[in-house]
Amino acid sequence: RVQVTDVHQQGTQVENSNFQQAHGAAWEYLIQYANATNTDMWINIPDLADSNYIQQLATLILNGNQYTAGLNSNLHVYFEQGNEDWNSSTQPAIANSILAGNAGITQPQEYVAHTIANAKIFQSVFNQTGATGRVRPVVQWQYTTQLAIFDALQWWERSNSDKISNYIYGIG
User: Fold this and answer.
1) Contact 84, 92 (CB under 8 A)
2) How far apart, in Å, are the Cα atoms of 94 and each of 60, 84, 99, 115, 166?
3) Sorting pLDDT into bands at 50, 70 and 90, what band is 50?
């Protein structure tokens, strides 16, 4: 990830190949901005971030580090898995497609399962039960394929005997 101590906040071309997303600003700057403007955070979690990365990100947002305080306790963090995972012309969509194929499920199902797995990690770090606390995971999908995402949400509930509302704050 881009670090506070990096010379610039753009990443390099080499780092941005093969889905190794390293562009954008350091997470610390996003936390500082939210705190300074007293505004909730909206973040996009990199598609291929592993559970350790997600846990460290959630911990950073909650507690901060030597460069920043954690997110103010009155603010929320909304997160979306990837960015435009429905858009087949983007790298996140390609990554989602590969993950779905490896798991033998549809792309919307992979997206929902991935979002909920990350929601569980964030909820654990924030010591939160349900999706209406400080952590507010959202599912975003292309309007023209909205039924696919509704089917994926229902698939997840049937497969897990649990309510989607325990993990997803909203859909768009």
Assistant:
1) yes
2) 28, 10, 9, 16, 28
3) very high
